[in-house]
Structure formats: structure tokens, C-alpha cells
Amino acid sequence: MQKCPGATLFALVIATGFATWVFSLIISHAVRLIIDEEGEASWILRFIFTILGYATVFLPCYVLIHLSRRHNLHTLGGCQWRLLRLILTGTTLETADETDSKISGTTRASNLESKTLYQKAISLTYCCVGLQISYLLWGILQEKIMTREYTDGDKIEQFTDSQFLVFVNRILAFMFSGIYLLLTHQNVHRTPLYKYSFCSVSNTLSSWCQYEALKFVSFPTQVLAKSAKVIPVMLMGKLVSRAQYKNYEYATAVLISVGMTAFLLGSGGDKKGNNVTTVSGALLLCGYLIFDSFTANWQSALFKEHKPSSIQMMCGVNLMSCLFTSASLVQQGGFFYSLSFASRHPVFIMDCLLTAISSALGQLFIFATISKFGPVVFTIIMTVRQGLSILLSCLLYKHHLSGMGILGVFVVFLAIFLRIYYAQQHKKRKLDAADVSASKV
């Protein structure tokens, strides 16, 4: 058999999806017998259900991609095969214009090199301010939704479905980026859609862990955990893209984490009303750090390999995220629960929309920052944001800021200054070495 007919291919994909769905139902019922749905470890149940929901999309797509490549179906003519080319090659064109790709990459590289230090500083400031504003608002709203109770007459409820919040955030971000792509001119897209699925899964799982963790740990504790994210990002960079870091980068990463820890511990203020840190909360925060570190480095690798624009990246990742989260919500009945909750509490609808808008705007700045400055610089900006969120709280609500907190702020900004200084020195030495080599020739 030389070719795999389209009807057979789609039958196999549907059969794989159905078999995965049946298997997930069996596993779900088996796990319910072991883990108490009302207990503290119930988040494990929800995590397993989420993974199984993603599998009902991931496995059929794997079969589709594997068989299509094996039989070269994406090279055939016809509308359905053009869609398959988009999944496998990132473009609906039968052949990619490699020359155009090389010219575009060369032009982009030359433009990047020709930027002055002033232009880079303006661009970095723009990304930094955008990230601070959008995610400060997002942090306030997510804490409200996951930790505060909504009142409907005599009935008091607390929202519990983290997956629905992730879905709302991703679908609005997909709409924002999709509309922007339709209204503006972009370079030819050459990133295979299936490659977005890996960072999409890690991105949705990191957000899920973040929301779930608020059920077990206080918001300051969660912020404290995020402040040390620069170290796992660098470690994940070595695993994903074989990135090489200098000694000063490791040293400043440790300094930033130490400084942020001192600042956050020194600005704890009133601890009343915060949840007690538990093993479950600690595990969820570790999951968040791991998934988020993988996401940033995988996206950075895609930027280097396929050179998509930040908006194309945002649209592709959120498209896949919508597919994964919607499949999981349908299986778990999350749509019915969340919409029913929203009908009883109209304020919840406004909170969700504001959260989604701030998250979507934040993603625009995330992709722009990673594509221009890399995942480590992005993590430094977001780490500083953690301190600013606590500092803003101290100013607005008169929380106590101890000497340790002030020392922490000093250490963080000292580390950032040292990182910029040594990076410039390293770049200067490389340029001097290149000039010396050129003069010898």
C-alpha cells in the first residue's frame, strides 16, 4: 500500500480519539475510588482529569501527523490537505520559499544589530511597563476569584474550576491575536502548528497549577515561589535549547532570588486570613515553576528556528490551548458548572472578563519580550514585578516594610545592574576579539 487514503486516515484519527476518551473514563472512575473528591488531595484528581482531557486531543493529532508524514499526504492537492500542510509545515503553500526566509532572517538580524542602545532601552522599557501593569491587575483579580466568596442572597459560594479560567484567558488572547493578524501585514508563517502544542500544554498546566495553588497557599507565598523562577528557567534552557550561560549569569540569578526572598519575607505584614502552606500547595508551586520554565524556553527555541512574529506565536499557542482546555472542560462538565456559577453571580462574569483582558495584553508583552530579549530577561522583569506588587501593597495599605525588605530591594537591583554591566563587557570583548581577527587577516 503506497498511500494512505484520506477516509482511512480520518477513521483512524477518530478511532484513536474515541479509544482515548473511553480509556480516560475508565481511569477517571478508578482514580475516584482511591482519592477522596472532597479531601485536600482532590487537586490530584483534577490534575489527572485535565491530563486525560488533553490526551483526547493530543493522541489523535499524533496519529494524524505520524501517518501524514509517513505517506506524504500534506503534499497532495485539495482543501483538506492544505490544512494538513498548515499543521505539518506551518504554511499552506506547497513549497516554502527558503530564499525569502533567509532574506527575512538576515534582514531581521541586521535590523537587530543596527539598533542603538537607546532604541533597545526604549523597547525594553516599553515591554517592562506593559508587563508590570497588565500582570499587577491580573494578580489582583486571580486572587479575588480563587480566594474570595461570591454572595447570592443567602447563598455564599466559592469558584473552584481553575480550568475554566485558563480557557477564558486563552480564548480571548486567541481572538486578540487573530484579529491583529487579520488587520496587519505579517511575514509568511512557517512554524508547524503541531510544535505549538508542546508549549501550549505546559503553558496551560502552569496556569492551572497557579490557580490551584491559591487554594492551599497564601498569595505572598505564591509570589515568593515565583521570585526564584530565573534559576529553573536557566536550567530548563540548558535542557531544551542547550543554552550556555556565563558564570556572572548564574551568580546574578542567585542574587536576584536571594534579594527577592529577603524583600518578600521582610514585607509580609499582617498574615491574618492567609491559607496555611501545605504539601499540596508546595507541589503545585513546583509544578508551576517547571511548566512555566519549559514554556519560555520552548517558545524561545521556536523563535530561533522558525522566526515567527510574536503575534503569530501568541495566536498559535492560544489556538492549541483552546483546543486542549475545551476538550478537558467538556469531559469534566466544567462548562456547565462555570456558566451556572456565572448566572448566579454576575460580578464573577466581570471579574473573568477583566482577568482575561489583562492576561491577553500581558501575553502580547510576554511574546514581544521573549522574542527580542530572551527568556531570562523576561523572567528578570517578571521577578521584579513580584517585588513591585508587594511594594504597591505596602504603599496602598500601609503594610510594614522591614530593614530586610529594603535590603532585598537593593540586592535585586544591584544584581540586575551587574548582569547588564557584565553582559555589555562580554559583548565588548567579543567585538574587540573579532576586530583583532579581522585585522590579522
From TrEMBL:
Keywords: Membrane, Transmembrane, Transmembrane helix, Transport
Subcellular localization, as worded in the UniProt entry: Membrane
PANTHER family xref list: ADENOSINE 3'-PHOSPHO 5'-PHOSPHOSULFATE TRANSPORTER 1 (PTHR10778:SF13), SOLUTE CARRIER FAMILY 35 MEMBER B (PTHR10778)
Chief localisation class: membrane
Membrane-spanning intervals of the chain: 7-31, 43-65, 121-141, 164-183, 248-266, 278-298, 310-327, 347-369, 376-398, 404-422
InterPro entries recorded: SCL35B1-4/HUT1 (IPR013657)
Domain of life where this protein originates: Eukaryota
Originating organism: Daphnia longispina
Gene Ontology molecular function, alphabetical: 3'-phosphoadenosine 5'-phosphosulfate transmembrane transporter activity
Gene assigned in the entry: EOG090X05CU
Membrane topology per record: Multi-pass membrane protein
Zinc in keyword set: no
Gene Ontology CC, one term: Golgi membrane
Residues annotated as signal peptide: none
Protein name as annotated: Adenosine 3'-phospho 5'-phosphosulfate transporter 1
Family of the protein in this entry: Belongs to the nucleotide-sugar transporter family. SLC35B subfamily.
